Amino acid sequence: MVAALLTVVAGALPAAATAAAATTADGPSARPAPKVELVLDVSGSMKTRDIDGQSRMSAAKQAFNDVIDAVPEEVELGIRTLGADYPGEDKARGCKDTRQLYPVGPIDRTEAKTAVATLSPTGWTPIGPALLGAADDLDGDEGGSRRIVLISDGEDTCGPLDPCEVAREIAAKGVDLVIDTLGLVPNAKIRQQLSCIAGATGGTYTAVQHKEDLSDKVKQLVDRAADPVVTPVPVEGAAACADAPKVEPGLYTDRQPLGTHRWYRVDVLPGQELRASVSVAADRPLADDYGVLLRAVTAHGRELVRGSEAGSGRTDVISSGLRHPEREREDADTDKPAATPVCLEVSNSFAPASAKAADASAPGMPLELTVDVVDGPSDASDTAAFGLGRGWWLLGVLVLAGFLGGLIFGWLSRWRFAVWRTH
């Protein structure tokens, strides 16, 4: 169990370090070092002894020590606690009980381990305030990837400040900050809250409780850490095509309010093909029967093509994609052909699940837009570029067969009716 906790926490660090190491060799233009802050629940319930015969606190301390030993030099690490200092019953004081145990920066392993050793399960579970504090700890103008890893064994006890709403507010700031959560107790409410926190920022939730799940989780985390990190570019879509921001090929992130439209513009040269996809995360309770539509239209409003929903196997993310080829112009200047502006419209039919949920409609839903422009296909069998292509033959055969079948059926019906009347 301790190994599982260590693996999940440490998995966040190499992924960030890989991105930094890839750019360190570039000299002054290299990206800033990635920052990671570990947020540990030190509330009274962490005394419970149900992790391999140890208390939850002991298991967490051992995992932290191992992570501190293994953290790459490129990563700046910090530690924050919640519920570590106030043991009383005053909720107002207990819900302010969060502090930075070790500042984010180059790690001094001995000093960090000494700080962790002083921790003892004590008080409340102010997850929301702790996340706000961790976001401030990682704030800065130098940029770079930032990650919070939250380890907790219970629900937040400091309402009405909802930690899931806090996570959405953090994500809405447009900073490159991801929150991963680990749950130490197999409880549905805890899982729901921690999953919501992680999902709001594009992070992951992991339940650390069964040894038999360890191999699968380790593999998933290793694969995920090995993937190159692509940071979406923040962009704010317009309410109309005429005001749409121009986007180049790449990955973009935006926030879309419920039931609204977002417009973006892409310039496509003759002979090129526009490929676009959009994913919107359902990070809050929603009414049934919702969907996402992606359309490509001309600057004058004529629809070129509309996307089709793509199943990703997930129920919390709805995706749609499209392809649009811009045909060659025979009379166009081949040296400097003029690009055609194509507007991409993203619309959704989301609605709050209840009147209470309507109060939480802001910020908008997390949206990711992928845009690519490639050389257009030249094969007429590519139906995305040339309509039905060879499918016209099949359509013609079906139409002819239907016509002949109708004639034969009509003739037989008239013949049977005539025979019936003669009898």
From TrEMBL:
The keyword Transmembrane helix applies. Residues 35-225 form the VWFA domain. Residues 323-336 have a biased composition (Basic and acidic residues). The keyword Transmembrane helix applies. Residues 306-336 are annotated as: Disordered. This is Alpha-1-antitrypsin. Pfam families: VWA_2. The chain crosses the membrane at residues 391-412. Keywords: Membrane, Signal, Transmembrane, Transmembrane helix. InterPro entries: CLCR, VWF_A, vWFA_dom_sf. Residues 1-21 form the signal peptide.
